[in-house]
Amino acid sequence: MAGFVRDILATLSYEPRPELPHAAGADLSRLDERLAGFVQGGARTRDTISIRPGDCSVWDGNPRDIPGLSAENCRSLIESIAQEDGNRIPVLVRINPPGADRPYELLVGSRRRFAVDWLNHNGRPEIRLNALIVDLSDEEAFRLADIENRERQDITELDRARSYQNAVDRFYGGVQSRMAEALNLSNSQLSRLLALAQMPDEVVNAFSTRDELRVRHSEVLTPLLRKPDQRERVLAAAKAIGAEQERLAASGERLIPTPTVLMQLKEAGLAGGSRTAREWPILSRGEKVGRVRPGRDGLTVELTVSEETDLDDLLIRLRATIQEKRDLAMGTAIADESA
Questions:
Q1: Choice between 317 and 295, residue whose per-residue pLDDT is larger
Q2: Phi-psi group of 294: left, alpha or beta (phi > 0 → left; psi -120 to 50 → alpha; rest → beta)
């Protein structure tokens, strides 16, 4: 069994495979296909077991956000396992050391474990979790989980990046080049992911969902977060945007879209630069309807008001923006004069 899994580690490509037409099995990762083939090929050995989901703890080296799993986002998998009376594709577990609370540790297959556990608590207590016992080091388990998760759309770039940040110290002695070689990544690719992992929580919360924050966004924001004065302005803007996102979500309104969030954060960071860079958008219902910028004797306001514009909301946002940016613009002007 160990040889089979290490063969997977040696032969499975890390590159995303081409999109396949929708068909039975088209949503399987290549790791899934190999595991399914192993069992269907009659290789039921002492390493193949049926366990209860509660028999295994979940290894903390997997990047999947376990609390984020739900019946809604696992619905198709739950229905498939219910129809087949079990998971056709086995999960991978290893034996916990003596004295552990549970006999097994889950390495790969968090969604399958969740689905079986949900079914056990919702009318199908007889279904068991089919598993393969493997003997892998933590580093090998990390690489195997990474192979699977690269093809999963429900793993966010941020979750993957933060798992890499933890892994570079935990498994590779803090040497980024060693990790890049082990994962078949270029140093630049890994560096970009690790930069995303460093995004402050304030910035993460400014986006409508964690999935919206991508590597390409961190490439814009990271340079602004390196200088203390720019970082302070970016974080202040991020907190304000995050609070507005919460308000919009609570009232059922459309959240501020990602391009607008990125623009606001970038403009906040650049506000201490040239005068032409110091301008701030005015948002109404998440859409940009104008801007405020420093003028000769104060602030200059430009608005674009259409028939669809909510005037009451616009006036509230305009007042808040002017109050917030007036002090910032005045402070910057004083700094310019004293420089």
A1: 317
A2: beta
Instruction: Report helix, strand or coil for 188.
Output: helix
pTM: 0.66
Range 69-88 average pLDDT: 91
C-alpha 328/C-alpha 6 separation (Å) is 58
Residue 324's Cα: distance from chain center in Å?
31
Residue 339 has pLDDT above 50, yes or no: no
Nearest residue to 258 via CA among 210, 304, 224: 210
Q: Could you give the percent of the chain with pLDDT greater than 70?
A: 75
Q: What is the DSSP string of 115-131?
A: HHHHHHTTT-TT--EEE
Long-range contacts at 78-81 (CB < 8 A, ≥ 24 apart): 78/115, 78/118, 78/119, 81/112, 81/115, 81/116, 81/119, 81/127
Q: Specify the residue for token string 């507005």.
A: 244
Half-sphere exposure of 175 (CA within 13 A, CB side): 6
